[in-house]
Amino acid sequence: MEQDTAYAICRFSDIPSQRAIGFQLMIVGDDGAPRPWPIVIVRWGRQVFGYLNRCPHNGVNLDWERNQFLDTNGTKLLCGKHGSTFELGTGLGVDGPCKGQSLTPIALAVLDGDICVTGVTLVEDEDEACDEEA
Ligand code: FES
Description:
Strand order of the largest sheet: 9-10-1-11
Shape: globular
Largest sheet: 4 strands, antiparallel
Order of helices and strands: EEEEEEEEEEE
Radius of gyration: 15 Å
Bound molecules: FE2/S2 (inorganic) cluster
Number of strands: 11
CATH superfamily: Rieske [2Fe-2S] iron-sulphur domain
Number of helices: 0
CATH topology: Rieske Iron-sulfur Protein
CATH architecture: 3-layer Sandwich
Distance between the termini: 19 Å
Helix content: under 10%
């Protein structure tokens, strides 16, 4: 499988602006074995940002309650375990135990109205790959 394949995760319109949604995906690891790849996608106006859904502090999912990713102001990503907050656009930890550390960014592209991940090989089930040239 090619690394430059773009995999459609959801429609751009599925995520309202200033909201974040988690997806439990599987990728093919370097050793060829599938492994879980939880991600969070944030939409802010016309922009989308993607990060691994893994807190740099304890390695847990950020959303202690499912899909509760944002702080009370809705302007930062929040780890529900110990309250670290992260800039939406960069993933940089700005408060809490993760201050100065960063979430792991993932490459996203919006193609033909779909939010797609690129640069990895996903284990596909019913999700369809979308065309790079779209
Ligand atoms: S596990 Fe996220 S701040 Fe501690």
